[in-house]
Amino acid sequence: MKNSISIMKYIFCIIGLIIWVQAFYIYKEKQTFLEKLSTVPGIVVDEVETNSPTISFVTKDGTQIQFTPDSNNNPLNYSPGEKVEVLYDPNNPKTAKLNAFFFLYLGILVVGIMGAIFVLVSFSFFRSDYLKRKKKHFLQQNGKRIVTRFKGLQLNMHVTVNSSHPYFICSKWLDSINNKTYVFKSEDIWLDPKDIVIPQEIEVLIDPLNPEEYYMDISFLSVKN
Question: Transmembrane segments in this chain: where (predicted)?
Answer without folding.
Answer: 7-27, 102-126
